[in-house]
Backbone:
């Protein structure tokens, strides 16, 4: 079924189909960027294929790859035959593939999301704006070179250092997954700030390179052992009580 | 209420207190709330408001969907960077005295959304009085938070506070395997 789509595309486009693959039944066709919109249009219109269901459009960033930085992926399906196909092309930074929004209107927002997250513009798109993030945002966050801790607040953060507040959500507050400024907690300072701010201010280190983390873990272990010992003791007394 | 003085005048009894105590007492039992609900924690908020847990028992049953008429801002759920201006503006529109409750881990510290999308705790934008940990917190914790806030209002205390975890029932003092002793 899906194999037939690959064969049909290969027969029609010949050399312009660069690669085909079939990983666990997921059929894929790779084309050049100049053929991107044409192949999609053909898949939609051809009476054998009738790929009328636009599923998704996304991209993958390979910053270390020299030939072309992005993979652009189109997932599509035919509601008539049930065949699924994935169309892939390689996009250099700054290259503009043709838009698919005239073929499947669902591609309109998907292409805006790809622009928002990866910075790939689509040639001929009617409304090439950001869709999820705000206009003030600089950069494209799903590019691998976007700093993982970089936030771009619309409202300036309050000065948190001078307000008398408790630390949010450490292990002692019953949140074992909390990310904590371990050193300052151990030193007795309670002026913990949020993880993202901590990194921006150079206060936060990862858990693994911190000896303080091991000390805390040891403390928790000791406390749990003590609690379980107390629990057993109280259970023993309870049994004695019921026996009388 | 704070200091009470009972004056027994034979057949008639009068009770005196300080005006500020009386005022805070009135405030803490008539909290009009503004629910700023953005995410899954909203389900627990609804559960708390519904009859089984019944937040009306604490005088906080009236939601006001205008910030100008409300006393407590419940920030329930994840606050994205894009929502920051909205929540800040809503808080600014509320009339004093006003309080803020950060409901759930996301509103309190961003939770696991430690990236470009999310404000790491709504206290980065507006001051928070009570933090409720949990993902999401149970309605009991929400009621604990409301009672904590009432205590804070009565004491005129603006220091931020976290709702402490409740004891595990099996380990609570006074309980045995057979039940309450």
Residues:
């Amino acid at each position: 079924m899906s194999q037939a789509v690959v064969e049909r595309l290969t027969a029609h486009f010949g050399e312009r189909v660069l690669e085909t693959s079939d990983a666990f039944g997921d059929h894929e066709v790779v084309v050049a960027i100049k053929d991107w919109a044409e192949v999609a249009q053909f898949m939609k219109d051809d009476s054998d294929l009738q790929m009328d269901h636009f599923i998704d459009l996304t991209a993958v960033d390979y910053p270390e790859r020299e030939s072309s930085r992005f993979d652009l992926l189109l997932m599509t399906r035919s509601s008539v035959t049930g065949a699924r196909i994935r169309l892939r092309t390689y996009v250099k930074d700054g290259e503009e593939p043709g838009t698919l929004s005239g073929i499947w209107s669902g591609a309109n927002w998907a292409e805006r999301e790809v622009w928002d997250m990866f910075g790939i513009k689509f040639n001929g798109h009617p409304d090439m704006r950001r869709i999820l993030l705000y206009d003030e945002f600089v950069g494209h966050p799903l590019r691998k070179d976007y700093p993982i801790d970089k936030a771009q607040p619309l409202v300036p953060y309050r000065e948190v250092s001078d307000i008398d507040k408790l630390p949010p959500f450490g292990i002692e507050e019953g949140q074992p997954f909390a990310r904590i400024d371990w050193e300052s907690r151990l030193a007795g300072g309670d002026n913990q700030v949020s993880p993202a701010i901590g990194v921006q201010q150079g206060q936060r280190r990862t858990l693994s390179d911190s000896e303080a983390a091991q000390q805390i873990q040891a403390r928790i272990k000791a406390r749990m052992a003590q609690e379980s010992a107390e629990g057993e003791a109280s259970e023993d007394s309870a049994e004695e009580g019921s026996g009388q | 209420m704070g200091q009470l003085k009972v004056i027994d005048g034979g057949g008639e009894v009068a009770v005196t207190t300080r005006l500020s105590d009386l005022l805070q007492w009135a405030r803490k039992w008539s909290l009009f709330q503004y629910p700023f609900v953005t995410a899954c924690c909203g389900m627990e908020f609804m559960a708390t408001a519904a009859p089984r847990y019944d937040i009306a028992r604490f005088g906080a049953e009236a939601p006001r969907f205008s910030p100008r008429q409300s006393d407590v801002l419940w920030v329930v759920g994840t606050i994205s960077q894009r929502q920051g201006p909205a929540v800040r503006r809503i808080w600014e529109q509320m009339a004093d005295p006003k309080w803020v409750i950060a409901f759930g881990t996301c509103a309190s510290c961003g939770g696991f959304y430690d990236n470009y999308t999310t404000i790491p705790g709504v206290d980065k934008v507006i001051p928070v009085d009570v933090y409720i940990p949990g993902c999401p917190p149970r309605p009991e914790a929400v009621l604990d938070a409301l009672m904590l806030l009432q205590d804070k209002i009565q004491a005129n205390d603006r220091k931020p506070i976290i709702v402490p975890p409740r004891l595990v029932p099996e380990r609570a003092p006074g309980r045995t395997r057979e039940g309450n002793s």
Summary: Confidence is low (pLDDT under 50) at residues 162-180, 240-244 of chain A. Chain A touches chain B at residues 133-134, 141, 146, 148-155, 157-158, 160, 163-166, 168-169, 173-175, 177-179, 194-197, 227, 231, 235, 238-239, 241-242 (CB under 8 Å). The CA atoms of residues 23 and 43 of chain A lie 21 Å apart.
